[in-house]
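Worked example 3. Consider a protein that binds coproporphyrinogen III.
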Amino acid sequence: MRHSSFLRALRGEAVWTPPTWLMRQAGRYLPEYRAVRANAGDFLTMCYTPELAAEVTLQPIRRYALDAAIVFADILLIPHALGVSLRFAEGEGPKLDPIRDAAGLARLTDASSAAAKLTPIYETLSLVRAKLPPQVALIGFAGAPWTVATYIVEGGGSSDQAAAKLWAYRDPAGFAQLIDVLTDATILYLENQIEAGADALQIFESWASGLPEPMFERLCIRPAARIVAAVKARHPHIPIIGFPRGSGVLAVRYAAETGIDAMSLDPSQPIGWMRAQLKRPIALQGNLDPLALVAGGEALAAGVREILTAAKGSPFVFNLGHGIIPQTDPEHVQTLVDLVRGG
Ligand code: CP3
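Given these inputs, the predicted complex is written out as structure tokens:
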């Protein structure tokens, strides 16, 4: 088993100083990323070209000596592999050919052909693993079924996920079929990522906010529990991090009922409060406001200090409460790493 402070923390050890990585640590805020991206042309080409994806995965590790690398890919590759057309319009975010009914569902391929189409991602993981220092862990990931469904039903991003919610209210059985095929494909995709070299997994439930409790239970907790149980049946030692962003107090149920090993908190979920609510002692991760990292200076120093004070003595992984914002100054990231490591 890999000797990694990050994996020890996920398994419940209060490692101090806390291991650190940052969501979206590979990305446009880094000049070396923008250089690779400019040559590749578009984002999807980068995701599907293992040499390029491996290179940008490693860039933040070289620069900041972070404790974990996360494979460079995207949560929307699963719908793409299921047959949903996908493009990233410059400056506008993702655009998908929406699915809103049974006829749309019938156009999707099956889960195992979808997972088989994602071979380039597995190759990226193998390439990265071969080049990473042994003590640096490699994280595989997928979007959670509900979050991925919101993009499929809307045909892109949305602020209120209204189209997906309306389908779920009006036709619960039809919507459940979409969630089920996404769950099946995600299980196979994550298992393949482990077999290619992932040491841990993260499930991104980025749009868990605003769901009434019964819907959160049905669309977020149950599919996550099914994914965790299936993956753990074959790979019991691979820790799984859940990130139910914006779930507020419902995160307490998410931690108790999904079987995850660790939970990533968003900036609004206090670490001390969450720890006191946990019914099962799992590791926590988070949760600096990405805008405090953009601001730098005292806002950054105070934000890091407060998190370290709240987390000290417990199993914890330092991270942001959401992805790095492209406007972030790379120097501020160095400052963050130095602050966490007490430099
Ligand atoms: O964290 C990492 O460094 C690994 C790579 C990673 C990306 N996306 C690369 C990416 C990960 C883990 C993701 C997850 C992801 N993708 C999520 C969940 C996390 C979150 O932020 O809530 C979501 C919702 C997506 C969907 C997605 N991908 C959107 C909405 C966008 C467009 C927004 C934007 O920032 O332009 C993307 C594109 C994307 N995914 C980029 C990167 C580096 C930017 C692409 C570019 O122009 O180079």
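Take a moment to read the result before moving on. The chain has a mean pLDDT of 97. The two ends are 29 Å apart (CA to CA).
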